[in-house]
Amino acid sequence: MKKESVDFEKTSVAGQVSYSFSPSITENIALLKQILNNDDMVVYRYLKEQGSRHPQYCIVFADTLSSEKIVNDKIIRPIMENLMGKNIKKNKLLNYLSNKVIACRDVKKVADISTVVHSILYGDTVVLVEGFSKALVINTKEWVTRAITEPESERITRGPREGFTESIKVNMSLLERKIVNPDLKFKYMELGSITKTKICVCYIEGIASKKILQELMIRLNKIDQEGILDSRYIQDLIQDSPLSMFSTIGDTERPDVVAAKLIEGRVAVICDGSPSVLTLPYLFFEYFQANEDYYNNYVFASMNRLLRILAFFLTTSIPAVYLAIVTFHQELLPTPLMLSIAAARKDVPFPTIVELIIMLLVFEVMREAGVRLPLSVGMAISIVGALVLGEAAVAAKIISAPMVIVTAFTGISAFLIFKMKGALIVVRTFYLIMAAFLGLYGYMLSVMVLVVYLISMRSFGVPYMMNASLMDIQNIQDTAVKAPIWLINKRPKFALRRAGAKSFAKK
Fold this sequence. Notes:
This protein is an alpha+beta fold. Helices cover 46% and strands 11% of the residues. Mean pLDDT is 81; it is low at 1-17 and 499-507.
């Protein structure tokens, strides 16, 4: 018995070997206790017939994961009232127990011990019966979950206020409420050899591309990790260009965003324990789209979207262009402005490139500090710190006044497209280095390199810059500008076509 339990523990993690129950309830209990050794969370409730030395029934459950009310009122009490002391045919006892005694909606017969152990540790209750080599697994999960609230990172002024939680069932129900259609499909999987994390692939049949679905399932099945604790783990393991600073898989905490993307033909991946839902394929222009654009007038929404695109160019280009002009191309500036900049830099001991690096580094430090501190303290420290440090640096002649303006404008522009913050830092640094060596020629060369790089990228076979073509009305109607909702009547080219179907997408 000991050897069998040790082997089970070694092989169950890898998921290669399964063991079955024996007809003896005593042996089954002993085996479960050896597998779940030193786990005080697991409770064993024995039910004995009068005059019997051995238990006739054994209810096994995890105390912190299972509902005490369901276990007591729906399982233990019905068994004691309906079975104890009554003569029921031995071969029909298990069926009678599952069909007429246990008052729960989800009751399964399981013979595999690894499945039973996993069910116990996931919040289910297991009923062992003497004389049967199968166990009854009953759904009694009761987890403490966070209430449905508006996501902190995706706040809006108009639109739904609900957001995903850490419960996969709650997240699925939010999507089902948005899309009441039998074509909405959910496929379960388990990832992580130790954590056994449940994930769900969600799509609309007849709209989502079969090639994309097939490629996604292939990549998910190739994942070989011990632990999957968040959707970010999955994102890093399945995305195209894993070393790229630009993401090829989107993530959001808003059900309306995911629902709109599903209607467009995309696929969603829900991870249990994570409020962030992955969507794919993900294109470059989705960085500049906000779900609030679809709840406002199209003119106002288009203006906001153009501002985000402008912010991308400003936050990446302002430091490099300023450095190139001040260092190499002073003749491009009006004479009064050039004299003003020269006067401001008169007593500054550092060259322009060093000033820029110092100020951008300080800004990123204050941004990260503001994020990590409590909300009430972080905002105050960020604002006061920026004012005090900027004023003190200029007064001490360490940094020139124009450099403070350049840094502030660069940082504020980055907040308009916060989800791209990692890529912005890398692109900004690349532009800055090229401009430091070659001036404006280096800046223009770096821009061309970035464009070529973006064009070469793919997201599950879909071109990353698919919507950048000005020759196709279908592509540009929801990119740099947002067309009226009645004009957006076609899905992206990677989605399947259905007769009479229209896309009313909200990202």
